[in-house]
Design a protein that fits this description.
This protein is an alpha/beta fold. Helices cover about 20% and strands about 25% of the residues. It has a single domain (about 1-105), classed as Rhodanese-like domain (Oxidized Rhodanese, domain 1), CATH 3.40.250.10. It has helices at about 5-15, 55, 75-85; strands at about 1-5, 20-25, 40-45, 65-70, 90-95. The radius of gyration is 13 Å and the shape is globular.
């Protein structure tokens, strides 16, 4: 199943990763600049370059949280849809904003 998470749940996952893999999804390399969190994987999503899910995890029972921190970007949702369509069972996504980058520092 695929679930959208709230900002509060996203913040909790940053603080207590548990068994989650965090995947920062953008459409270009330059969009990662200053908007990524420690121990997150950075992947580029495009129609021409779909995500290789096996590079994230070959375990289809792994909790994976895809996120984007740019307004009006839905790459994280697209990546979550792809993972769900490929049989991943615990898929989450967060569509955030650039201001969310402070969450990792415990400031918000």
């Amino acid at each position: 199943m695929m679930y959208e998470v709230s900002r509060e749940v996203f913040k909790q996952r940053l603080e207590e990763r548990g068994n989650f893999i965090l995947v920062h999804v953008c459409s270009t390399e330059s969009e990662f600049s200053g908007n990524t969190f420690k121990d997150s994987l950075n992947v580029i999503w495009s129609r021409e370059n779909p995500i290789d899910l096996d590079k994230i995890s070959s375990n289809k029972n792994q909790n994976i949280l895809f996120y984007s921190l740019l307004e009006n970007h839905d790459e994280a949702r697209k990546a979550a849809e792809l993972a769900e369509a490929n049989g991943y069972k615990f898929v989450y996504f967060y569509l955030g904003k650039a201001v969310d980058k402070i969450l990792d520092k415990g400031l918000n």
